[in-house]
Structure formats: structure tokens, C-alpha cells
Amino acid sequence: xxxxxxxxxxxxxxxxxxxxxxxxxxxxxxxxxxxxxxxxxxxxxxxxxxxxxxxxxxxxxxxxxxxxxxxxxxxxxxxxxxxxxxxxxxxxxxxxxxxxxxxxxxxxxxxxxxxxxxxxxxxxxxxxxxxxxxxxxxxxxxxxxxxxxxxxxxxxxxxxxxxxxxxxxxxxxxxxxxxxxxxxxxxxxxxxxxxxxxxxxxxxxxxxxxxxxxxxx
Length: 217
What we know:
DNA-binding; Lambda_DNA-bd_dom_sf; 434 Repressor (Amino-terminal Domain); Helix-turn-helix transcriptional regulator; alpha+beta; Cro/C1-type_HTH
């Protein structure tokens, strides 16, 4: 018996995707996904290949095995690193805080983060963050769930550009998106009326400014 229905459901749960969000990735309908998960139908082989490629899962395992959470989170180790490097030599290697990482660890160590490769270029250090419900954000935050936000590290030469811009604060377990405010030469990143972080020389490594956004269409 094929395990594709079980594995689609498990993939959705691990990746934090609704049936509709999962369907949108592969030009399907929510009803399609529901029928796969309830074993009323199976996806076409072309769709299975798309799912396998998108989530970097071997087709045989997607079809024949009931995948575990750990397997889904670690399939990137299944492929040869050299093959990956050949495709990304002209892209930027960026540390990435994603949902999967935060589900495993709430204490963020940038040196231990997974990396993604993307055509984003900046002279400052870069950081990619997946917008998810695991990271607090302002009530009027303009980005959808699952969008990947690219941030540049806040350095002295961009301090004058921070006013009203979206930012990200990261210090151990304390993570949040916010908006920069500048008053009387004091710089704050504000989440809401009760939580903010004040920028200074000692903690400047914790502050990032939004540089770009990637969202699946």
C-alpha cells in the first residue's frame, strides 16, 4: 500500500502548512489534498515527483515508507554536498532561521543555523528568517505566514535609514520582529507597547534590518 497520503499529511504538519497552503505549492486544490490524506485518491506521478523534489525526499521513500518527523527534518543530509555546491556557486550563502529549527531549539546560535542559497547580495552580513507563529510580530505585520524575510545586519553606516523600517531582534531565546523608531538619537526596535529593544554598542549584534522578501506565488 502506498504511503503517499500519510506522508503528505505528515509533511504538512511538520512544515506548518494547511491543506490549502500545501495545495497552492503544486497547483492543486484543497480537495485534492484532502482526498490524498483520506486515501480516496492518489496524486499523479508528476505531482509525486514535484513533491519529492520540493521537499528533497527520495521518491521511493515518499511512496513506500511512513516518514518520521526526524527523517523529514534531516533529508537535506541525504544528498551529496558537492552536487549542491555546483548549483549555488553564484548565490549567497545565508544563515536561515526556519520553523523546523525553532521547533527543535528555542535558543538560537547563528553558528549552528542551517543555510540557504539565494540571489541576495549585500556588503553586510545577511540573515534569512521564515515568518511563522513561533516568532512574535507586530499586530499590523505586513508579511504572510511562510514568507522568507532577508535581513542585513545593522551597522553604523545604515543607522540613518532605520526610521520606521521593519527589523528583527535575536538574542538567545528572545526573538521578535518589530519596527524601528528613532528619537533623541536613541534607536529602538518596537514589537508593541510593552516590548522593545534599545540599540547600543554592546548589543548591536542582535539587530537586523529588513532587506528583501521572498514569498511563493
